[in-house]
Design brief:
With 120 residues, the protein is mainly β. It is 0% helix and 62% strand. It contains no helices and 11 strands. Strands 2, 4, 5, 6, 9, 10 and 11 form a 7-stranded mixed sheet that branches. It has a 4-stranded antiparallel sheet with strand order 1-3-8-7, with no helix packed on it. It is elongated and about 45 Å long. The model has no long low-confidence stretch (mean pLDDT 97).
Length: 120
């Protein structure tokens, strides 16, 4: 069982920055891919950024050059640095953790979601 706690969301003006944090805890043997998704009300959930255990990253086209995903393996934490935020970035952001746990299971876990609001 893995618990993910997100923080760092809030209200910011267009052009500003926020840094989202997601910390994983539980009986974790290894974390593989860590990802950030976002989903606005009535909209489809979309992948924003992902980072593998080897450090390979990928980003949605809409955030390339503005967002940076990183991870601290020693702390089981993933970050999303969001720069030059735009009003269209406004939505709820969720972290996802693909992990191997002590019950010998590999599964996906979701954070509770954190609201990001960008004003124009």
């Amino acid at each position: 069982q893995v618990q993910l706690v997100e923080s760092g969301g809030g209200l910011v003006q267009a052009g500003g920055s926020l840094r989202l944090t997601c910390a994983a805890s539980g009986n974790i043997l290894q974390i593989y891919t860590l990802s950030w998704y976002r989903q606005a009300p009535g909209k489809q959930r979309e992948l924003v950024a992902a980072i593998t255990s080897g450090g390979t990253t990928n980003y949605a086209d809409s955030v390339k050059g503005r967002f940076i995903i990183s991870r601290d393996n020693a702390e089981n934490t993933v970050y999303l640095q969001m720069n030059n935020l735009k009003p269209e970035d406004t939505t709820v952001y969720y972290c996802n953790c693909n992990a191997w746990t002590g019950d010998n299971r590999v599964a996906d876990y979701w954070g509770q979601g954190t609201q990001v609001t960008v004003s124009s």
